[in-house]
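Thread amino acids onto this structure.
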């Protein structure tokens, strides 16, 4: 392959219009190539699937043209090609004027907010009366007057005689004059609109590349299904490339994924850049020409990029929707889709087949099914839908709660540099926080972080009130109650400890000002028990006897307060006595060598039960080690 990258992005133009109004013939007149590739298309003289071609405008602009079907039976193929175009070429035959599919295609263009384009008034060679052409233009102007194409120029042409073709090309160049380049957000995605097998090369997919660049040799992922592969080759209109940027038609030769594993509508991405979803929060515009209201729970067909799947409509905030009205919806799809905030979509009724409306994806990953009339949900979605980029980023942080930057960026749908600048401002203003170590940083809103910390404080305080005889709450229990991810929980606990709000002792945590308070009667019971330990230090009351003397709660409190040291299920000592015994034993072994259980028993005037538990504890603590029937001091390890 040549190391070649196009100097300019190719502008992508999509045709639209009624069947037999001359779209494919017009393209052939412009490019010299007929876009109908299938035998059936030739026989029926209509486009069934998408046709692709390219040409260059007189001013040097490169054009990729997508010829889409016009017949009602094939309108759903048309939708897969028109969602990522820079401008449209709406074709209307001069001898017939506006027809049903003209209106439906225009509705779709308007719903997708394709605001750039021109109207080609074709077959002018079949019309002898200039007044008729004027009337058709008036009809077209009236038709587009309330749409995104209201200012589109109209050019009279004849593909047969080549009349007006040069004027059409010049006008198209003017239409595209101020078209911005597609942004490179560093996270490419390509919605697959064709899949085929090329002998000797393997699987090839085509589509329009958005939001990033692709390079030969890169690892890729096909969603949904997370199928892993690698880019073997790239082509743009028969030109082999090493790399290609966003805004271009591209054919990608993939290794590692079989052709039969790929379907139209799959999304090709870099691994981990996107996640598929079965639920979408969207804004929706219901077309005014529909004769029935839109009801909750209606089953529809969703068209998103080149993907098509069944979607159940959940109306939010209204019982039903009248034609011409707008609303918020939650769509629940049969098959997982890949979407980004700001993507445009179309909904169609499956039977009888008709376009219902469309709109914009607000949240591609809502975490749950919304309550339909929840005012907070409606307010949040309206804020995201209508808000400026800062509002959108705040809502993304609120939705994610705790997430790395990459995830926040995906949820927001904002351009990377813009979003990062806004985030830095939010952090500077104390609205957002970046928490954690370099490789594991996460973002959150300060309000969410403060609520999380106060929530942990409250749980610990409630625990102290419920269990006043316990010196602290187990960290695992606190984590379970808080339902926080491990990394978030650990950062929050560390923060509370650093601030001095809480004290962590091993696996337990307590409020800094908490102390176990014993009543006078409890203190009396404790004194009596400790006196028994003092009277017989190496053979004191057992665990069961100690609990019986003061009660289990008080006993556990004495253990937590280190007033007693339990070394087995039966044996407990005074901490001071235990430590003294350890030092005496170490000196004894150092002087006289290894020692048996019986010798230890005699040394401390105790019983085998107590001394066996004592020695086994020293083994576990690494003070001694057993060798047959004797214990010796365990030699030190490491450099020391």
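Threaded sequence (640 positions):
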């Amino acid at each position: 392959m040549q190391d070649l990258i196009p100097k300019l992005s190719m502008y992508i133009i999509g045709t639209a219009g009624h069947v037999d109004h001359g779209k494919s013939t017009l393209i052939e007149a412009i490019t010299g190539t007929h876009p109908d590739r299938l035998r059936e298309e030739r026989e029926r003289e209509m486009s069934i699937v998408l046709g692709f071609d390219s040409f260059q405008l007189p001013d040097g602009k490169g054009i990729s043209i997508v010829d889409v079907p016009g017949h009602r039976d094939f309108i759903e193929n048309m939708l897969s090609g028109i969602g990522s175009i820079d401008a449209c070429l709406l074709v209307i035959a001069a001898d017939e004027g506006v027809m049903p599919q003209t209106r439906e295609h225009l509705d779709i263009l308007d719903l997708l907010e394709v605001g750039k384009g021109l109207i080609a008034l074709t077959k002018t060679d079949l019309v002898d009366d200039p007044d008729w052409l004027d009337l058709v233009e008036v009809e077209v102007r009236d038709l587009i007057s309330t749409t995104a194409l209201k200012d589109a120029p109209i050019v009279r042409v004849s593909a047969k005689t080549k009349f007006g073709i040069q004027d059409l090309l010049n006008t198209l160049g003017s239409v595209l004059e101020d078209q911005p380049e597609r942004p490179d957000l560093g996270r490419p995605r390509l919605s697959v609109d064709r899949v085929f097998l090329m002998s000797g090369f393997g699987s090839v997919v085509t589509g329009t590349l958005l939001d990033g660049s692709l390079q030969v040799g890169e690892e890729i992922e096909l969603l949904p299904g997370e199928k892993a592969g690698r880019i073997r080759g790239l082509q743009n209109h028969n030109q082999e490339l090493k790399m290609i940027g966003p805004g271009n038609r591209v054919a990608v030769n993939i290794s590692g994924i079989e052709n039969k594993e790929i379907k139209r509508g799959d999304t090709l991405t870099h691994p981990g850049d996107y996640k598929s979803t079965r639920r979408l929060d969207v804004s929706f515009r219901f077309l005014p020409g529909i004769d029935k209201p839109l009801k909750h729970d209606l089953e529809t067909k969703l068209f998103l990029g080149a993907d098509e799947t069944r979607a159940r409509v959940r109306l939010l905030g209204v019982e039903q929707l009248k034609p011409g009205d707008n609303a918020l919806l939650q769509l629940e799809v049969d098959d997982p889709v890949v979407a980004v905030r700001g993507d445009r979509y179309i909904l169609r009724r499956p039977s009888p087949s008709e376009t219902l409306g469309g709109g914009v994806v607000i949240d591609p990953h809502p975490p749950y099914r919304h309550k339909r009339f929840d005012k907070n949900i409606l307010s949040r979605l309206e804020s995201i839908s209508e808000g400026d980029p800062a509002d959108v980023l705040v809502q993304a942080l609120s939705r994610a709660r705790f997430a790395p930057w990459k995830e926040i960026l995906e949820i927001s749908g904002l351009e990377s540099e813009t979003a990062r600048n806004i985030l830095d401002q939010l952090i500077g203003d104390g609205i957002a926080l970046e928490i954690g170590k370099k490789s594991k940083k996460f973002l959150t809103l300060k309000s969410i972080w403060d609520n999380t910390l106060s929530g942990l404080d409250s749980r610990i305080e409630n625990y102290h009130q419920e269990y006043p005889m316990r010196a602290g709450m187990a960290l695992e229990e606190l984590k379970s109650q808080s339902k926080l991810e491990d990394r978030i929980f650990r950062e929050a606990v560390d923060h509370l400890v650093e601030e001095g709000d809480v004290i962590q002792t091993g696996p337990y945590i307590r409020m800094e000002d908490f102390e176990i308070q014993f009543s006078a009667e409890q203190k009396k019971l404790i004194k009596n028990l400790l006196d028994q330990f003092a009277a017989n230090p190496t053979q004191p009351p057992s665990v069961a006897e100690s609990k019986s003397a003061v009660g289990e709660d008080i006993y556990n409190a004495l253990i937590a307060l280190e007033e007693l040291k339990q070394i087995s299920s039966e044996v407990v000592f005074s901490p001071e006595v235990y430590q003294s015994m350890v030092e005496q034993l170490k000196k004894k072994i150092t002087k006289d060598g290894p020692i048996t259980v019986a010798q230890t028993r005699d040394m401390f005037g105790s019983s085998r039960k107590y001394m066996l538990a004592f020695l086994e504890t020293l083994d576990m603590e690494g003070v001694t080690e057993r060798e047959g029937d004797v214990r010796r001091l365990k030699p030190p390890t490491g450099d020391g």
